[in-house]
Design a protein that fits this description.
23 helices; disordered N terminus; 7 strands; two-stranded antiparallel sheet; 554 residues
Length: 554
């Protein structure tokens, strides 16, 4: 129980004595605990008017969010004092619950205690000073992101009373990212509230920071200078130069963002199309159901997520591991289903492209309907694990951890597939069958088994692509359909059965698509990509690395 001395003295001398006694009782009640914002606020509520200025000044050094919560309760009549044997408990009543102001600890009061508890409210002068304190509360928060957001909000408000607070925080701030945000906020604020020299210095500061957020404010300064007939003034010239610098920076960031998105899109295409390149090149099967194996990966990830939520909860640390578990599991589930499909249907369609196209198209329709019956027609939600949230910032350019991880998975897929094909007996058999099926069979290679394992591998890689796609897109029955056309384009451009060509063409298509979209839009960008592909195939019908062997010439 928190006990503090109740003061009813009004003279200056007695006020000082009261404050000393109050501090003594606090030290006895809190023991050796560290002085914090709640303790200071408790003292502020119970202190006399002459003592409140000192406590308000001390409270201004804290960034605890509890300050705003307690003040709102104090302002609206949610703070009560309860006298027990010459001691006072300071209580807060919020959401039908009582708690101690000094600790936040919940307490239970009897009906008698509730009746005798006295309501206390902040005075008008305290409310006025608290408003300024709350406006700058975020600058002292422990979380750097909160300090950054608070500085941005204060700078863009253009209120002159925030300038001293920003300057004071800049002197003591140690985190570089927060310092940059405060510098930007202070410079934007001085564009409105500073003199001519301060405005010029602020414009130069914003040019150094390459502040995109300040464009509108700088344009107003430039417009005011031109309107006043000072188009050749140092401030107007500096403003024009800064706007050009910011525009060039924005163009660079847009290009880098498109380039990064192109790499991540190409990485997804690479994972999805690698399996298609192997199966199409080996067996000549035009697998129109390849997109549904992508959906299997997405739904497997969703089911693993649901299992982790039901077992450990969404907020547990174990939940973050669901995605790590879902990656190999998606591969195994799709590979198992692909193995059954190959042994029951696909093996009767080798070297029969038209029949395989029609049959696999029918299989894709059946699989889509199965997804709707099991999971529903609507998309299902897959949450990102906490370790994939956020961005990596380099020189003002942000890259999401999710897309970086997808690129890492694509690299792992390339390395493991290369090791499989070059360093294992299965890989040797796959390459032999791809070059000459009849000769491989005559040399004792189990062609039927190789076909089954290869088709299963291709289906597993497609599901792996669906698993990573669940982190950046929707999971639904048609999630793989938007990638099936691009995947076939990747295989054809890279040359059928050539994994190096598939990797290069996947990255090329992803980059070209994302680089064209900002200028042409999503639709025209995609149409332009297809047109470029048609022109390329007219020039090189065999793709990037056309195969040259006797088996293909016959």
């Amino acid at each position: 129980m928190i006990s503090v001395a109740k003061s009813v003295l009004i003279s200056p001398f007695r006020a000082v004595v009261s404050l000393l006694l109050f501090g003594l009782c606090c030290s006895m009640s809190f023991g050796a605990s560290e002085r914090n914002a709640r303790v200071v606020f408790s003292e502020l509520i119970l202190a006399e008017k002459l003592d409140q200025q000192v406590l308000l000044q001390e409270l201004s050094h804290y960034g605890d969010p509890a300050i705003a919560n307690i003040y709102e309760a104090w302002r609206t009549g949610g703070i009560f004092t309860l006298t027990d044997a010459d001691a006072v408990r300071l209580l807060q009543f919020t959401d039908e619950q009582w708690s101690l102001v000094a600790t936040g600890e919940a307490v239970t009061l009897s009906e008698v205690e509730v009746e005798v508890a006295e309501k206390t409210r902040a005075s008008r002068s305290v409310r006025k000073q608290m408003k300024g304190l709350l406006d700058t509360l975020g600058l002292k928060a422990d979380d750097p992101n909160v300090r950054i957001n608070s500085a941005i909000k204060m700078g863009r408000s253009l209120k002159p009373e925030f300038v001293p607070a920003l300057e004071a925080q800049l002197e003591v701030e140690a985190v570089d990212e927060v310092r940059a945000a405060i510098r930007e906020a202070l410079a934007i604020s001085l564009l409105e509230n500073g003199d001519a020299a301060e405005k010029l210095a602020s414009v130069e500061e914003l040019a150094e920071l390459k502040s995109v957020a300040s464009r509108g404010f700088i344009e107003k300064v430039l417009e005011a200078e031109v309107t006043a007939g000072r188009a050749d003034s140092p401030l107007a010239i500096a403003s024009s130069t800064t706007l050009r610098t910011i525009a060039e920076h924005m163009n660079l960031m847009e290009f880098l963002s498109s380039f990064f998105r192109g790499f991540s899109t190409g990485s997804v295409l690479l994972i999805v199309s690698f399996g298609l390149a192997i199966t199409f090149g080996l067996m000549g099967i035009i697998n129109m159901a390849h997109g549904e194996f992508v959906a299997i990966g997405g739904y497997t990830t969703y089911m693993v997520q649901t299992f982790f939520i039901n077992t450990w909860g969404l907020s547990s640390e174990a939940f973050g591991w669901y995605f790590v578990v879902s990656l190999p599991l998606s591969f195994l589930v799709a590979a198992g289903f692909g193995l059954v499909l190959e042994k029951s249907i696909i093996r009767f369609l080798y070297r029969r492209p038209l029949e395989s196209l029609l049959c696999t198209w029918g299989i894709s329709m059946v699989m889509q309907q199965c997804f709707r019956l099991i999971f529903g027609a609507a998309n299902v939600q897959v949450n990102n694990p906490t370790w994939l949230m956020g961005n990596l910032s380099l020189g003002g350019f942000s890259m999401s951890y999710t897309r970086l991880f997808i690129m890492f998975i694509a690299l792992v897929v390339v390395v493991l597939t290369w090791l499989l094909l070059r360093k294992t007996n299965l890989g040797l058999h796959i390459r032999a069958v791809m070059q000459n099926r009849g000769m491989a069979s005559s040399l004792g290679i189990p062609v039927a088994r190789v076909n089954s394992m290869t088709f299963a591998l291709g289906c597993g890689l497609a599901a792996l692509g669906g698993s990573v796609l669940s982190q950046i897109g929707n999971v639904g029955p048609l999630m793989g359909q938007q990638y099936i056309v691009d995947s076939f384009m990747v295989v054809v451009i890279g040359s059928v059965g050539n994994l190096l060509g598939a990797g290069l063409s996947a990255m090329g298509i992803g980059l070209v698509d994302q680089l064209l979209q900002p200028a042409l839009g999503p639709v025209m960008g995609k149409i332009t990509v297809f047109f470029v592909i048609i022109l390329f195939l007219q020039w090189r019908p065999g793709g990037l690395f056309p195969s040259r062997s006797r088996s293909l010439d016959d």
